[in-house]
Design brief:
Heat Shock Protein 90; about 600 residues; alpha+beta; about 5% strand; 5 strands; single chain; 2 domains
């Protein structure tokens, strides 16, 4: 048998890479709005339109903050409730999440309407032409607020339902439709900044409706219903999701400060140049955002199960796989700085070109640091480390970038803003180490130390056994190990024997039938715990969905003993729970 740590790490790594593409694509949906609008604005509407798009960025960041709060809070709670096998609580969180998101959407639409109608853009920019383009732009964006908010929520729940293919289809269709609508409304019809916004809004409606069809069809586990919903659950969504989203909220303030600095010391040309790299890199930021979404789902379930090993292995995979990947992507962006700038400004003679090119050279340097910081903030959010999350959110969201920008912009111009973002990544990464050092009273030497995992988290080591299986030949050895563990815990002979028998039957069934369904490498993650005089067996695998509850009810006249082992386990166990979580089969047996 491979060591528990190594095989569990392999299982988690495979799971994180399998979930990553769709989460990256999903995160890119919002960013595509920015890059497509930026390309059409700079090439077909003019530099003033690009400035209008940049002026709308604080609104985008606010909506992202609310979305992150709702998605983060609901995913974390649902993951923990699923880890504890509480389906009714999961249902309530789903319904309340959609209801709150709809209410926020309507409020934002009213606010944007007021800004557009009463020309409130004059509070931010003096140029009358830019203000007019800005008013038209937000009018078009208001049409897409509801599908933007609800679409992001449904995508998160589709991941929990292991229906990521539908989100993939919705994302691809959105990208295609968004480009098509931009061509029609901006190039053909000449709707200007209103056309830019209208195109993305209609694309978001398509994105939302494709996902909503699954929940309307009645095939989903989660269904919208008000009955049974509790105000406390709504409060919990906001309470859990708020700390992690504060960084986005603070970035709204940061954007206003940075915009003011750029306009004061450089002018609107600086804002246009900053918008080029900023909007394009918005798509690249989908990669660390997707990484975080994957890790958040796995960590939330691990915390619900009190699974320390899986929790730390998520962070190990982040350091060993995600950070190097992000560093490679950053290097490619730096090398391609000038070609990327030419997508927006074909002529390289003007000052705006060089200012924009430096954005591609410097801003990518902060991305590997951000992967680390985002993961630790998310873990702090899920584990109740509120002070750490708040401090990091304030530093990362506004203090570091705003302060460094205020110091550097008067000295080195727009490069001061780019450099400030890099220094922000360095400072916030160091804060993680300092927090761990302060909490543990020693320099962190292990992943447990760095994460500051409480000593009493999960079942004590002397009351649990963790193993992993990779072949049928190992099943008997695991069965013997389970029986020896139970005997060593003082459990009576009958329950010790049943524990070994149940494990051999159910784990062997996974290997014999699950491992041969495809060409992928699989493993079975096994945990045995002794808690409150109860033996709890947990079998987790990454094979195709297989619910033994359904199999025990089947009968085969040609083979009457088929599924007899499963029926035997169900008839003798005290309680059996099955869940399909993030594409993993999780079977829990209480004896």
């Amino acid at each position: 048998m491979m060591s528990k740590r190594n095989q569990n790490l392999q299982l988690i790594t495979r799971l994180m890479y399998r979930l990553l593409p769709i989460q990256v694509l999903l995160a890119a949906v919002g960013a595509v709005n920015g890059i497509v609008s930026g390309l059409f604005a700079s090439n077909y509407v003019g530099a003033d339109a690009m400035s209008a798009v940049q002026l709308y960025m604080p609104v985008t960041q606010f909506l992202n903050a609310v979305n992150l709060m709702m998605v983060g809070g609901s995913q974390i709670l649902c993951g923990q409730y699923m880890g504890r096998n509480e389906p009714e609580r999961t249902q309530n969180v789903f319904s309340l999440d959609l209801l709150i998101s709809l209410a926020v959407s309507l409020a934002v639409i009213v606010l944007l309407g007021a800004v557009s109608i009463f020309d409130l853009g004059r509070l931010f920019v003096a140029d009358a032409n830019v203000r007019l383009l800005f008013a038209h732009y937000i009018a078009g964006q208001a049409i897409g607020i509801i599908p933007l908010m609800l679409g992001q929520q449904l995508a998160a729940f589709l991941s929990l339902e292991n229906r990521m293919r539908r989100t993939t289809i919705a994302s691809v269709v959105f990208i295609a439709v968004n480009i098509l609508f931009n061509y029609v409304f901006v190039v053909v019809l000449g709707y200007g900044s209103f056309g830019l916004a209208l195109a993305s809004s209609l694309g978001l409606w398509v994105f939302f409706l494709i996902q909503a069809q699954f929940f309307i069809s009645g095939k989903s586990m989660l269904r919208f219903k008000m009955r049974g919903c509790r105000a406390k659950d709504a409060g919990d969504i906001i309470k859990v999701g708020l700390p992690g989203s504060l960084s986005q909220g603070y970035q709204t303030v940061r954007r206003l400060i940075v915009n003011a600095l750029v306009l004061s010391f450089i002018g609107s040309i600086g804002l246009s140049a900053f918008g080029v790299s900023d909007s394009f890199l918005g798509v690249i930021w989908a990669l660390p955002s997707g990484m975080l979404a994957v890790s958040r789902m796995i960590m939330s379930v691990s915390i619900g199960e009190e699974d320390r090993q899986t929790l730390t292995n998520v962070m190990r995979t982040m350091f060993r796989r995600y950070v190097p990947l992000m560093a490679l992507v950053s290097l490619i962006l730096i090398i391609c700085a000038k070609p990327l700038t030419r997508l927006y400004y074909p002529e390289s003679a003007g000052p705006v070109f060089e200012m924009a090119a430096w954005g591609f050279r410097l801003l990518p340097l902060c991305m590997p640091f951000s992967v680390i910081v985002m993961h630790f903030v998310c873990y702090g959010q899920e584990s109740g480390k509120h002070m750490f999350v708040h401090v990091q959110s304030i530093l990362d969201g506004v203090v570091c970038v705003a302060a460094f920008s205020a110091l550097l912009v008067p000295l080195i111009g727009l490069n001061g803003v780019y450099t400030a973002n890099v220094l922000n990544g360095v400072v916030t990464t160091l804060v993680i180490i300092i927090y761990s050092w302060f909490s543990k009273k020693r320099f962190p030497r292990t992943m447990d130390d760095l994460m500051v995992i409480p000593d009493d988290f999960g079942v004590p080591e002397n009351q649990r056994m963790d193993l992993s299986l990779g072949s049928i030949e190992e099943v008997v050895k695991v069965s013997q190990a389970v029986q020896s563990f139970c005997t060593g815990q003082g459990i009576d002979e009958r329950r010790s024997m049943l524990s070994a028998l149940f494990m051999e039957e159910m784990a062997g069934n996974v290997i014999l039938h699950g491992f041969v369904t495809d060409q992928r490498k699989h493993s079975v993650d096994i945990r045995v715990t002794h808690k409150n005089d109860e033996v709890i067996l947990r079998i987790k695998d990454d094979c195709i969905p297989f619910n033994p509850e359904e199999r025990k009810q089947m009968s085969d006249p040609d083979d009457p003993v088929r599924y007899a082992g499963i029926r035997m386990v169900y008839s003798m166990a005290r309680q059996i729970d099955y869940q399909s979580i993030l594409g993993l089969n999780v079977l829990t047996i209480h004896i």
